């Protein structure tokens, strides 16, 4: 899979943010997120890492991604 352009990457970030906003309490592991959004592991990890760095998500002790309260 080729990596998306910067614009497409940003669109994916918006989509993922929307999912977490629409579903309070959403808790996903990397593999669950990959399946949900049909992404390969490296792209999914990069997106989630970006959202953690932007303080929208956090990683729990068990490796799940949850919305930062």
Question: How would you describe what is shown here?
Answer:
The protein is mostly helical and 69 residues long. It has one domain (6-67): Orthogonal Bundle (Arc Repressor Mutant, subunit A). It is 55% helix and 12% strand. It has three helices and three strands, in the order αβααββ. Strands 1-3-2 form a three-stranded antiparallel sheet. Helix 2 packs across helix 3 (41-53). It is globular, with a radius of gyration of 11 Å. The termini are far apart. The model has no long low-confidence stretch (mean pLDDT 94).
**H/E series:** HEHHEE
What fraction of the residues are assigned to beta strands by DSSP? 5-15%
Could you say what the CATH topology is called?
Arc Repressor Mutant, subunit A
Low-pLDDT regions? none
Which outline best applies? globular
Overall number of domains: 1
Q: Which CATH C-level class is it?
A: Mainly Alpha
* Largest sheet, strands/sense/barrel: 3 strands, antiparallel
- Annotated CATH architecture: Orthogonal Bundle
Q: Total number of helical segments?
A: 3
Strand order of the largest sheet: 1-3-2
Number of strands: 3
Kindly provide the radius of gyration, computed on alpha-carbon positions and rounded to a whole number of angstroms: 11 Å
Q: Can you give the mean pLDDT?
A: 94
Oligomeric state of the chains? single chain
Structural class: mainly alpha
Measured distance between first and last alpha carbons: 33 Å
The CATH superfamily title: Winged helix-like DNA-binding domain superfamily/Winged helix DNA-binding domain
The helix content, as a percent range, equals 55-70%
